[in-house]
Design a protein that fits this description.
The chain has seven helices and no strands. Helix content is 69%, strand content 0%. The protein is mainly α. The protein has one domain (20-168). Helix 4 runs antiparallel to helix 5 (108-123) and helix 4 packs parallel to helix 7. The longest helix is centred in the N-terminal third of the chain and has 28 residues, at 5-32. It comes from Microbacterium istanbulense. It is a multi-pass membrane protein. Belongs to the DoxX family. This is DoxX family protein.
Length: 180
């Protein structure tokens, strides 16, 4: 059986709060955690995301904004796209080469943070959301759940990640050994 009615709306609300506030905290920590944004900028430079300060600010801003938007259920497919974009960049630049499991610094956590908001967008933000308040009963309500929400969240997120990588990912090539 699948829950319906108020139970489903409460479950979706709790999932949005958990994921959204987790991502927002991640962005907040980039700005204000130990070493602040300057420390994150140096790290971004070290992984090939140049210029580091711009990319650290962009990542922190997207994480904070997308996280809060998802928690509120505001423009949920766009919030999901933000999650997808930052997590795909993280997979490409950091965790992807380490395999799947997080215990080996793999991409399993990034994958969950990328996919789950898109699936939530597909379900819809529920009755207890800004989306419901603004768009229920309007001609564009169909963009906020179902296949359209999936396409917006996944598609824009993938395009955002590809764009950021194309514009800013400049890893340092490995040094060739000197023949003696």
């Amino acid at each position: 059986m699948i829950a319906g009615g108020v139970e489903l709306d409460i479950a979706v609300l709790l999932m949005r709060l958990l994921l959204g506030l987790t991502m927002a905290a991640h962005g907040w920590n980039k700005f204000f955690g130990k070493g602040g944004i300057q420390a994150r900028a140096a790290w971004f430079e070290s992984i090939g995301m140049k210029p580091g300060l711009f990319n650290a600010r962009a990542a922190a801003s997207v994480e904070l904004a997308a996280g809060l938007a998802l928690a509120l259920g505001a423009f949920t497919p766009l919030a999901a796209a933000g999650f997808v974009a930052v997590m795909l960049v993280a997979i490409r630049t950091v965790s992807g080469r380490n395999g799947f499991f997080i215990t080996a610094n793999g991409y399993e956590y990034n994958l969950v943070l990328a996919a789950t908001p898109v699936l939530l967008a597909m379900i819809g933000a529920g009755r207890f959301s800004v989306d419901h308040l603004l768009f229920a009963g309007t001609p564009i309500a169909g963009l906020f759940s179902g296949w359209w929400a999936f396409a917006i969240g996944a598609g824009l997120g993938i395009l955002g990640a590809l764009g950021q990588l194309a514009l800013f990912y400049r890893p340092t090539p490995p040094k060739k050994p000197i023949a003696v």
